[in-house]
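hi! just following up on the protien thing from before. the input was this:
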Amino acid sequence: MNTPPPSLQADDMLLAPEWLLLDSGLAQGMAVRVRAGRFEDVGPLAELRLRHPTSLPVELPRRLLMPGFIDTHHHLTQSFGKSLAFGEPSEIFRRIWVPLEGSLDERGLYLAAKLAALEALRGGFTTACDAGTRSELGVDTVAQAVTDAGLRCVLGLICNDAGVTDTQPLIEAAERHLARWDDNGLVHPSLAISIPEAATDGMLARVAALCAQSGAPFQTHVNEHTASLERSIIARGLRPIEVLEHAGALGPHALLAHATLLTPREMRVLRDTGSAVSYCPVASIWKGNAVAQAGMLSELGVPVGLGSDGTRGDAFRLMDAAETCQRFAYGLAADDFSCGGGWQWLEAATAGGARAAGLGERTGRIAPGLAADFLLLDLDVPELLPSWDLAWELVRLANRDQIEAVYVAGKMRLWRGWPLDWDARALMQEVAAIARDTLARAPIVKLHPVRAVR
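and the predicted 3d structure came back as:
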């Protein structure tokens, strides 16, 4: 039955899990007080009992309370496509994603974004960075969908100006977008350029400066695969990161998705500018031809988060892919048997992702004052028994069906995989009813054959 105990749904809770994931690592004998959507107090259970004598601790044996995962690169309005992109050559945005998103009406856009938000929450993500929809209907509908679903979202507005003669309306729209979400606790504005060569140097510089001034992330795709790298060189005579460097668009505000095929100089530029990278290992497996040097970038001090690129909303499989890809791409050749260890990928998926997305002072950790975005994970499963190194085990052995509860801003959004305050089954039925018609209208060109249904 999808009915959580009332003690886990209060506005003021003193939670005492068996394990707590803190900045210092995994700890036992600890407790957290959640109040008014934030972590108000964190410390040893005995001390919190004394500090909050009127609060009755909720004992949670064999449970881990951990920060919610951060997806630092998503495309929320592409959820109707899914396996249409499987087996396709890399430049699928031209043949699949642009036609698909362009065929969504307002209701379809809302449903696609809400479906993606539901998948993300079910997979343990409490925050997703949306790189900007290509739909002309704008971002308002996406913002409504993620708010209704209960997912925290860094919401990108695309500001491409290639071929545009009058850029002033784009700038004005960007300024409005950055200023308008103060009253929405779950939506955090961001500006995006799809790829660096889709904008002039002037627009790259202006958009990046607006983000830097407002504390918002500037999102763009760089070096996703050989085709994208060569396209930049042909169009601009520069590699994508060189385009950004030349325009003065790099810096702590920059969040660069994919960032594979980096030269040593490009890694140094990222380090020196403080730019962040969204490492998208599943995207590399499914449609790329290279894996980001995430281990080296982290060692250099480049902020690295993990991004799904909309491939699948499953944070545990994303961490597993992150470690596996590093091992195959770089670890085996160097006899590096740990590739940073499980802790590195757990950190990149939580606190590191929050920092990369510009939300390090808001979420991503269990600490007083931060938003209470967290998971309750059931550790009482055969896969984690015996348990010797829980950090490694979360990366390699844990599964999303162990997520008992998902909280965003202190509110339980999902219990055992399903939302409490809205009808996910009704959403799924409506998606099933309209997705086929939406795809039929979209001028999608698919090269890999679809296996016939028998």
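The radius of gyration is 22 Å.
The longest strand covers residues 12-22.
cheers
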